[in-house]
């Protein structure tokens, strides 16, 4: 039976990208905590674990040989090299989940975003997060305390290149005040859920309404 507040709908693939340090991990975590209907698509990576990261929660951490095996076995929706390591989205249960109304959150870069969009345009919502300035981006990377000076310099060098992909996204949000940014991202998610094409329960509901 259709519940009038939440008609049956297809899930969506909610992508958050940004230059490193702009805050996509922070916003992702806030969204996952605030919203029961969205689940993180946990990526596979060859990069080493940072302090505080949990295998299977933040990433599946694997070595090069295991990553190669997953490529051979066609286990990835998409994968890309980033900062000298490889990152990929495992196929897992995403397609089946979408059909049942499960939303998935992706913290992936512009290359992965393009690949997902080419594969499944209708289910993808692309959000790009910008820092208020490059100085502030640098400060955040330093204050995060997870990377050496060389790694931070590398990330800053790549930031301009990453920002140049801003026009491949449906929404662009500046992360100045984190709470304001989070609320904006959350309202995008809420609005996208109500898109007519996603609400597969609408036809039956309207038919009943008119009978
Ligand atoms: N294409 C792709 N990119 C990913 C995936 N997982 C993470 N990334 C991107 O890889 C980049 C590096 O991520 P990470 O090492 O966690 O550092 P961060 O930039 O500080 O978040 C970020 O731009 C992520 O969005 C994935 O599965 N596929
Ligand atoms: N709006 C903000 N104002 C100040 N610091 C922020 C803001 N958003 C995130 N941060 C901090 O900046 C650092 C980088 O954020 P993070 O979410 O790890 O970025 P990303 O995942 O894009 O690399 C973290 O230490 C985080 O706590």
Automatic annotation (TrEMBL):
Q: Where is the Guanylate kinase-like domain?
A: 11-190
What EC class does the entry list?
transferase
Q: Does the keyword Cytoplasm apply?
A: yes
SMART domains from the entry?
GuKc
**Keywords, A to Z?**
ATP-binding, Cytoplasm, Kinase, Nucleotide-binding, Transferase
Record-linked SUPFAM superfamilies? P-loop containing nucleoside triphosphate hydrolases
Q: Where does ATP bind?
A: 18-25
Alphabetical list of InterPro entries matching this protein? GK/Ca_channel_bsu, Guanylate_kin-like_dom, Guanylate_kinase, Guanylate_kinase_CS, P-loop_NTPase
Q: Tell me, what is one Gene Ontology molecular-function annotation carried by this entry? A: ATP binding
GO CC: one term?
A: cytosol
HAMAP family, alphabetically?
Guanylate_kinase (MF_00328)
Q: Which family does it belong to?
A: Belongs to the guanylate kinase family.
Known role? Essential for recycling GMP and indirectly, cGMP.
Protein name stated in the entry:
Guanylate kinase
